[in-house]
Amino acid sequence: MAAARSVTRVSRGILLSVVLAVVLVASVLASSMVGQLPITPAEIVGSLLRAAGIPNGWAPADPIVESTIWIVRFPRIVMGLAVGAALAVAGAVMQAIFGNPLAEPGVVGVSSGAALGAAAAIVFGVTAIGSWSIAVLAFLGGLAATLVVYFVSRANGRTEVVTLLLTGIAINAFAGAGLAFLLFAGDTASREQITFWQLGSLNGSLWREVAIVVPVMLVGLVAAVVLGRRYDLLALGERNARHLGVNVESLRIVSIVLVALLTGVAVAFCGIIAFVGLVVPHVIRMAIGPSHRPLIVASAVGGGALISIADLVARTVVPGADLPIGMLTSLIGGPFFFYLLYRQRKRSGGWA
């Protein structure tokens, strides 16, 4: 029976990998082609081959098409993949260390804390470490929010749902007040940037920003995969994990820094994009089970695919307009969050 269950889970994992790969490639290709300037698949492939040093007849002859591909669409696509992966991995790690399916950077206020840090860097003109200044302030804001959530919501070795949600409400309210103050104190340019952060968007992504987000996302992903076995042991309970050699508190502190790092770098350049870290790990977990290493890797791919599709919809659903991507992810994540709340309440018989 156990062997049959294992084979079924492996089959689901392979099927999910194939589906995610197809969805990811299709969404990237569609995002490259669709827009105010339509571009054919042959021109996309030809441009890529020419960039790799392979002469071909498919590459676009029009410099406007070439510029649109490499200056406008590719940075936006790569940024979306990296941000989606970072937020999904951050959600999976948060759910592992809190032992609670409702933990997600946007819901518990980590994204808001990171946005507050980024907004402070903008308004006060913090440039001490160059282009990394906003990302570092966003990281520190996200780290502070995560630490508050952790120390307030944990009690007697478990995370209470009500306390977790109330803590998230309090942090989101505080961060909202801080953002409102910075909007009041900042100049016109700062206000526009802060408004952009609150809505979430990939519009205007640049290669130099991608060069910051992608390495941080990869480091966070590798670290989360390395810690995956310990998350599996932690799921057995703190006492059992300690008996099996896991330093639970060190694992949680390292994981909190990891969540803040992934969330901070995503929020610093694209604003608040909520619910990705909630929806994606749950869907993946239902398909392949709770083992954290495959869950984290598949969540990274799924998060990238989700943001890529959401950004494509944001760019095309209203002709000539670019909708905030955070609004679209909330439209998906909000009902899913209600479903999780309902299921949690039904299982526990209340809100404990």
Automatic annotation (TrEMBL):
Provenance organism: Conyzicola lurida
Keyword Transport: yes
One GO CC term on file: plasma membrane
Keywords in alphabetical order: Cell membrane, Membrane, Transmembrane, Transmembrane helix, Transport
Record GO biological process: siderophore-iron import into cell
Family the UniProt entry places it in: Belongs to the binding-protein-dependent transport system permease family. FecCD subfamily.
The UniProt record lists the keyword Nucleotide-binding: no
Annotated protein name in UniProt: Iron complex transport system permease protein
Membrane-traversing stretches: 77-99, 106-126, 132-152, 164-186, 206-228, 266-284, 323-342
Main location, first listed in the record: membrane
Topology in membrane: Multi-pass membrane protein
GO MF, one annotated term: transmembrane transporter activity
Coiled coil regions, renumbered to chain: none
Subcellular location: Cell membrane
Entries under InterPro entries matching the protein: ABC_BtuC-like (IPR037294), ABC_transptr_permease_BtuC (IPR000522)
